[in-house]
Design brief:
The protein has helices at residues 15-27, 42-50, 89-97, 103-119, 140-150, 164-170, 175-202, 221-229, 247-250, 258-267, 270-278; strands at residues 2-11, 32-35, 56-61, 126-129, 153-154, 209-211, 234-240, 281-284. The chain is an alpha/beta fold. It has one domain: Alpha-Beta Barrel (TIM Barrel). Strand 1, helix 1 and strand 2 form a beta-alpha-beta unit. The longest helix has 28 residues, at 175-202. The protein is globular.
Amino acid sequence: MKQLIVNADDFGLTESVNRGVLEAHRRGILTSATLMTNGAAFESAAALAHAAPRLGVGVHLNLSEGRPVSDPGSVPSLVDERGAFYGSPARLLARILLGELRLEEVERECRAQIEKACRAGIEATHLDSHKHVHMLPPIFPVALRLAREYGIGVRLGIERPIGFGRLLGRNGGAAGQLLKQYAAARALAALAIHFQEQLEQAAVEAPTHFYGIVQTGFLDRAELEAILWNLPEGSSELMCHPGYVDGALGQTPTRLVGQREKELAALTDPKIRNLVAFLGIQLIDYRHLVGAR
């Protein structure tokens, strides 16, 4: 059996992103979303989630952008002199390599983000993270420990890119960005394979296959069709970023602006729904992962 979780990252980033996520769920194939609890539109996202009980909602752990949910004074190794995160995964990684990041503070902040979702009445289904920072080697055991404690799943991004040459051919002007994303996908897959034993020992659920890092910013109907046609047996997750464009989105650090509307169009295209049905793909969220591996 082929099972697919279609997860929207960045739920709670802006009101326009929230509207896109809900539309992709109600009119399209989106089954899941991960909530940015430090996002400007967190309260709106939580309210929309309550109105869509079939939507699985996880927590999109964020350690690189915006302000922490914790008191900044309680996580000094995570924030700059303004009390904000350092602004990029690269800077976070640099602090890890220099021994300047305290893992007890990472756990404190991640727990605070999960608890904020819980206080809003969200029954979290899983954890993933903004820019995949939970896959950094010192941080993954923290995320795994929290996932086990809360009885939820965790994203394990074992991506095996398909049709990369075709994707390059269709987007030749963006070869540099695509090659960067391909390298990131391969590196994260290597880390994920290394973490598989820890995941199994902790009895925490994760999909076996993963897609979306290579296609970030380029996920249109053609790419979505290619993923669906090549979906393997077992459980898979597709990461996506649907949304609408407005002024608030333009004020965020995201590079994904107009592309979010293209992804929304692909996810809600009736031809995509028909293809899912034709291929016998079961659309699920993390709540249905038990026994799906």
